[in-house]
Each structure stands twice: as structure tokens, then as C-alpha cells.
Amino acid sequence: MKITDNVLLRAILLVFCIQFGYMFLFCLWPYIHYGSNLPGLYWKPNDPYADLIKYGLSIKELFTGFEDTENFSKLNDIYKTYWLNNPYKGIDGVITGAMHTHFLHPPFYFFISIFFTFVLTYTGSVDFTVILFYFSALAIFVMLMRFLRFSIKDSVLAILLYALCYPTVFAFIRGNISLFTSTIYCAVIIIFSINKKSWTGNILAALTIPLRLPSIIFLGILHKNNNISSWKFLIKHSLIILVLISITSATLFFIAGYIYPDFTFKNYLKASSNFVNIFCFTGGDGISLQNISILAFLGNIGVKNILLKKSLYIIISALFTFLSAVIIYKNIQNNVVKSFVLISLYCLVCPITVAYHLHIFLAPILLMRYYKVDTESCYNYRVILSVSAIMLSPFPPIIWWSYLFHIVLFSSIIILFVLSVKPLSQK
Hints:
This protein has 427 residues and is mainly α. Helices cover 67% and strands 0% of the residues. α14 packs across α15 and α16 runs antiparallel to α17. It is globular. The two termini are 17 Å apart. About 3% of the residues have low confidence.
């Protein structure tokens, strides 16, 4: 047996070859020829862990008097600035329509953030806080390996791929809580693929679907075949999860409102709407170069008219939803293909899908290993492995690189559609 027969190892090799190519193309080669670097892999160095620490420290009502403590004095000046001059607004920002407020995320995000902010204020150590943040997310992934019952070798390879792939590293450097949420989405997809009646999957889905509503399409993995009983099963379990979502969301909003009275469902809806409208429509697409959503693609090609942009977004989303539905219908019992297609569609239709959301593409790779598929025996698996590896690779803020990611994802759905409608002869 060849060493590359292990799909996890193949994925690692693909990811690191792409990363090496990026480092040569954008770091080594420009330095040799021009003595300078092109745009780097990560965010500005004067804004570290901002999505975690800056967001958490904006909720000053919960950490009153922190600036007068010894732990505050121990912080680097950058983190002191996060407290003294924080761009995240409070209730006044919601009223005036500000883009950044600390109400723009659902309660689950809010609770994670204030927990790690409490750790920071209690210890005075940014290093300890972010290490705890990283290893907490890694622990969730390790538990997923236990669920999959991978061998020690496969578990080590999977953890290595998770820990070192670009989306995970980027989420860590930003301190973005998608490090947790996308890992849990991975778990939901894998758990439902293996055990469609799992209450663990139901609870995890109920906790995380409200964070990014398009993720509700992951429930499509529950569809087992195309007969009536399967449709009944899908509808029944989807309704169970929707009830759980209602109960858990209401409970979390109640607790959040008790802790911080301004944190209401109404303020959350207004804040999140402000953010999406400014970010995706009226604000000039400031981060479209690291966003693989359809809206970002439209912004990158120069569509500025809001009505036209919304119309094209609906049309293109409907087109890829149709293509995805056909692929799933033709591969209804293939959980690897279904998971990849649902993940790709989710990334495209979400208004904002930045690089740190993309480690969700680990799910189809892990499922390929779980089912021990032979990637050489099926063109579908070759496409899925290659595209997943690309999505786990560096995503620099360069216009043509952003086009590349969009083209790869668009093409993968079209190719899988063609292969599903008219399969090629297999080896």
C-alpha cells in the first residue's frame, strides 16, 4: 500500500504544497527580486486577537473598573487601546446604525467572548487567554476524533491537519470564535452522516445554527434516500431541531439579557442587520478580497448598485441551490458528496464567508477517511479532496487570488453536477 493511500495524509501533503507555493510566490520570490513582500497571509500586526479581546473589552459594563487594576497595567499598550479606544459601540451604536457594536452576534458568541475576557481580566495575561482559547477549540476537535473512532495514527494526522491549516491559524491570530463554531459545524455534519438520530448532533445544531442562519442547510445531510419515509424522517427531525433552536435561543437570550439588560433580541437583529448592510452593500466591500461568498464575488467584479447586487445574488444563489439539489438527489446515499456540496453551498450563500470559516471543509476529508473511500476510484472524490485542500490553504488579500477561490468553488459544484448527471467511466 502506498503511503498516500491515506486520504488524511494526501490532504496534508496537498495543503502544505499549496502553502509552500504561496510562501515562495508571495514572500521569497518578491524579496529576492524586489527586496519587499507582497500582501501577507494574516491581518495587521497592530490588531492581534481583535475579534476575541477587542470585542470582549468593548462590553465595559461587565468589567467596570478594570482600567484601575494591576492586571490592566500589565497589558501591552495595544490591548490597553482596545479598552480605552474601542471601536465596538454599545446601545448608542445600534440606534445610530453603526457597523460595529457588541450586539451583532447571538448569545452563544457573546457568552464565549465574555468568558475569555473574564479570563483575561482575572489573569492579566493575553498569552494565557489565547492559548486557552486555541486549545479549547482543539479539544472539541479531539473529541470528534474519539467519536469517529479513528486509530491513533489517523487521529494524529487529522489533528495535525486541523491545527496547522490556514483557516485555523488565521482564526487563532484573529481570535475569531469561528474557531469554535466551524469546528462544531464539522462535528454536526459528521455526526449526522454517521448517526442521523443522534441527540448530540441535534443539540449542537440547535446551539450553532442561530449563529449563521444559512447553516440550516446542513440538515440536508439527514436525508437518507428519495422515498417518502426518508422525507418524513427529514421533516420530523428538522422540526425537532427547530424546536430545540427556539428553546435554546430563548433561554440564551434570557440569560444574556439578565447579565446585560441591553442585550435583547430586538437589539441583536438591528445590530446584525446594520453590520451586513454596511459590510456587504453600502460600505464598499472592504473585506471582499478574503470573502468567498457570492456577494463578495459580485463586489469584486464591480457590481455596486445595491438593487442589482441583491437581484444577482438571489439569481446566482438559486442557480447553485438547484445544481446542489440535483447533485444530492443523484448521490443521496453518499455522505461525502452530500457534505461537500452542502458546505460549498453554505459558503457561497452566506453574506460573509471569510477565510477563518473555511476549516469546515475538514468534514468531507474526515468522512472520506471514515468510510475508507478510494479517491482514485471515483472522479467525485478527486474533486472533493482537491477543492477541500485548496479551501484549507492560504487565502491572501489579493484580487486575483480571491477570483481563484470563487472559480474553484463554482467549478467544483458544476463539475459534480455534470458527473452526477452523466457519470464518467471509473477506473
